[in-house]
Design goal:
About 30% of the residues lie in helices and about 25% in strands. Helix 8 crosses helix 12 (about 465-480). Among the domains are: about 10-100, OB fold (Dihydrolipoamide Acetyltransferase, E2P) (Beta Barrel), CATH 2.40.50; about 125-375 and about 480-485, no CATH class; about 565-710, OB fold (Dihydrolipoamide Acetyltransferase, E2P), CATH 2.40.50.140. It has a 5-stranded antiparallel β-sheet, covered by helices on one side. It has a 5-stranded mixed β-sheet with strand order 8-15-14-11-10, covered by helices on one side. Strands 21-22-23-28-27 form a 5-stranded mixed barrel. The longest helix is centred in the last third of the chain and has 40 residues, at about 520-560. It starts with 8 loop residues before the first strand and ends in a 12-residue tail after the last helix. The model is unreliable at about 490-520, about 645-670 and about 675-720 (pLDDT under 50). The chain contains 15 helices and 28 strands. Strand 3 and strand 4 form a beta hairpin. It is an alpha+beta fold and about 725 residues long.
Length: about 725
């Protein structure tokens, strides 16, 4: 291992198994060296320059020759390009490619994350030059062959901090059919910014957008998929200006069924920019001050609420999974330091827009499927056999009296959630239901969306920030024009990428019964769409990981100021080595190690997902309420450690045996899909002055002071299970 670095591709020979049966191997050949730059901190020790990698998966420091330090100074954060790889008896050698600045500079955590995860953060010169040639407003020639909807009172409804508006909505009561066959319902218009009109396939802007595949959101900063002239200008549905859009025009019955729809390009004029908070206030009191200010639009908002109620009926009927979760927002000051972490509650306005976007996305998927044109679907599959077995065992052990079948439907999950919502351990049950599901992906092979209980689903509503949505727009336009959309020449995937594509294609094809024999032309086209789906899915994960890395760093920095303080919290995960607790007041998660749970032997019950003390029967499971003290913050490892606050006898409080619901677990959400739950990761940082992996003097002093402040005596050392 001395001759390899993180992300190198190697050939390994398995030589033995350890005592737990896990295979152990030996590196026999280095197949490919990673060309990924390394981010780290420049240090000088005994006259030798070196860089300590920020990502601790790089197990070696990088030597820097005296002439390769550029203008960097000791202690600064730098980007290193390897010149010589490591050898069995020699460290890697590199040169400084870029100086990012001091570790405490505002926004440094974002600069590190975008480079660590290779997030493209600078547009190419060709992209910038092309963006400059775009008009500042919609021209008369751009409006040709489009439906004029400027007199339709479409409005945007977004968050207070939104800067780009890619969707607008309008609803009115309508009747389908005539005479005795007439049926009352709703006419819902969802207008989406027509990005594809300005971003041509294969253009410089398109190439940069495909490379990014998604916008990346950090606290106080966004790395957009498109240049600002498009994302905040021409393609943003700003109020009281003409904008080009693609419209999904739907007739929805009072039962929430989409009985008819059509797509067409249009030009619109947004009549108002609403916030979620404002709409919720108007709907709760149509004679209140907010409603008086917007009296011309109150009737339209009531119609939107009416179609929402119909769509909710359809959601309940088809058994879509609908767990209420809490999303958090980090509020920073001007220097980038966290001021507070607050819950971002979802009100009725969020749900109205979410259901409207879901309806448009379903119509888009159906339109593409009916046309037999290849495109990208948003596929979310049910639990794997392994996760299904774990969930079945858990439900049985919990004595719920309900379980899932061998071929479960979304309705089974929702039924369990509804039946257990008033139980003290409801949070634990709902968390296990969510964890059993897979992540959603983009793929040209449609196998439905399990969580939303749709037979076909895609993303149509956010082409400003998601490349798959832009592809969907292009496909719909091609179908309307009775042509066939051809993907541009995409970068050739590497060997590992190609293998993954073939395996994913084979797996999906076997599940949906796709014919094995296909023409070479179809195979080539299908592989191109599959590669595009894999690329967009992978970059979506990359954006999530980069965002979580920055949030973890900020939270560690924030909690470092609260060492020794006590807070109430709820257990959000139980493992064999301890429990993770999320604080009520701060929404920050930390680990209570098993050695801090008390002076007895704790056994991990995998079926019930809990730790149980053998002597007292004390149980720690998801939803258990505890009181903790912040004992240690490790900026190097992005870790926060808690200890339980014990009673006067030094024994864990017996009250912890009673489990209560606690707060909802946090999840990533969007207004048109809330079922992607990526696994959280803790990624290393570097904030200490020393390269050694030891606790700094300040941390030891804080920890010692915290212990003295509690007035607790050390308990005798008891054996514990790790």
């Amino acid at each position: 291992m001395r001759a390899v670095l993180h992300k190198d591709r190697v050939k390994v020979r398995i030589v033995r198994s350890d005592r737990k049966g896990r295979p152990e191997g030996r590196v026999v050949e280095i197949l490919e060296r990673s060309n990924q730059p390394i981010i780290g901190r420049l240090l000088q020790e005994s006259g030798v320059w070196l860089v300590a990698p920020e990502d601790k998966r790089y197990g070696q420091d990088v030597l820097i020759p005296k002439g390769a330090t550029s203008v960097a100074k000791p202690g600064q954060v730098v980007v290193v390009e390897l010149v010589e790889p490591p050898a069995l008896f020699g460290q890697p050698v590199g040169r400084i490619k870029e100086v990012l600045g001091e570790v405490d500079d505002p926004g440094m955590e974002i600069e590190i994350a975008v480079r660590k995860y290779s997030v493209p953060h600078e547009f190419s010169d060709a992209c910038i030059a092309l963006a400059r040639t775009l008009p500042d407003k919609v021209r008369l020639q751009d409006q040709q062959d489009r439906i004029d909807l400027t007199d339709v009172p479409l409005v945007t409804i977004d968050g207070e901090d939104a800067r780009d508006f890619d969707d607008a909505v309008y609803c009115e009561q309508a009747v389908s059919g005539r005479g005795r066959n007439a049926r009352k319902g709703w006419r819902l218009l969802v207008a989406i910014a027509d990005v594809s009109h300005y971003v041509d396939t294969g253009s410089a802007i398109d190439i940069d957008a495909y490379e990014r595949a998604t916008s990346v959101y950090f606290p106080r900063r966004v790395i957009p998929m498109l240049p600002e002239k498009l994302s905040n200008g021409l393609c943003s549905l700003n109020p009281e200006v003409d904008r080009l859009c693609m419209v999904c025009d739907m007739f929805i019955s009072t039962d929430g069924d989409v009985e008819a729809y059509q797509f067409f390009p249009a030009v619109m004029w947004s009549h108002a920019r609403f916030t979620y908070t404002e709409v919720a206030a108007i709907l709760s009191n149509t004679r209140g001050p907010e409603a008086i200010k917007r009296k011309d639009r109150v009737g339209d908002l009531l119609n939107l609420h009416g179609v929402y109620q119909s769509l909710i009926k359809a959601r309940q009927k088809r058994g879509a999974v609908d767990f209420e979760t809490t999303e958090t927002q980090i509020v920073c000051d001007e220097s980038g330091r966290i001021e507070r972490i607050v819950p971002r509650t979802r009100n009725v306005a969020h749900r109205i827009i979410e259901e409207a976007m879901l309806a448009a996305n379903v119509c888009s998927a159906d339109f593409i499927a009916q046309s037999k044109h290849p495109g990208l679907f948003r596929v979310h599959e049910g639990p794997t056999p392994e996760k299904k077995e774990i969930l079945q065992n858990y439900l049985k052990a919990s004595g719920i009296g309900m379980s899932i079948s061998d071929d479960p439907s979304p309705g089974e999950f929702q039924a369990i959630a509804e039946a257990t919502k008033d139980r003290p351990d409801a949070q634990q049950i709902h968390s296990m239901l969510l964890r059993s599901m897979q992540q959603a992906i983009y793929t040209p092979t449609n196998s439905g969306h399990f969580g939303l209980a749709y037979g076909a689903y895609t993303h149509f509503t956010s082409p400003i920030r998601r490349y798959p949505d832009l592809l969907v727009h292009r496909v719909i336009k091609s179908v309307l024009a009775r042509t066939r959309y051809q993907l541009p020449d995409l970068p050739t995937p590497g060997e590992a990428h190609a293998k993954l594509a073939r395996r994913l294609e084979k797996g999906i094809a076997s599940r949906v019964g796709e014919p094995k024999q296909q023409s070479k032309k179809t195979n080539a086209e299908g592989m191109a769409w599959l590669a595009a789906g894999l690329h967009c899915s992978a970059n979506e994960r990359r954006a999530d990981e980069a965002s979580r890395d920055v949030e973890a760093w900020l939270k560690c920095k924030y909690m470092k100021e609260h060492l020794g303080e006590e807070y109430g919290g709820v257990v959000t995960a139980a493992t064999s080595f301890g429990v993770f607790v999320t604080l009520d007041a701060m929404y920050v998660e930390g680990l209570v190690h098993i050695t801090e749970l008390g002076g007895e032997y704790f056994r991990f019950d995998e079926a019930r997902q809990e730790l149980r003390g053998e002597r007292t029967g004390t149980r720690y499971a998801i939803g258990t309420r505890v009181r903790i003290q912040v004992s240690r913050v490790d900026l190097d490892g992005r870790k926060i450690d808690f200890r339980l606050v014990q009673d006067g006898d030094g024994v864990a409080s017996r009250l912890m045996q009673d489990r209560s619901p606690g707060r909802d677990t946090k999840s990533r959400s969007s207004k048109d899909e809330r079922f992607d739950l990526p696994d959280g990761t803790r990624l290393p940082s570097f904030a200490g002055e020393s390269r050694k992996r030891a606790i700094s003097k300040s941390e030891r002093a804080s920890k010692s002071a915290a212990k003295q402040s509690t007035g607790l005596k050390k308990t005798s050392k008891m054996r514990h299970k790790v």
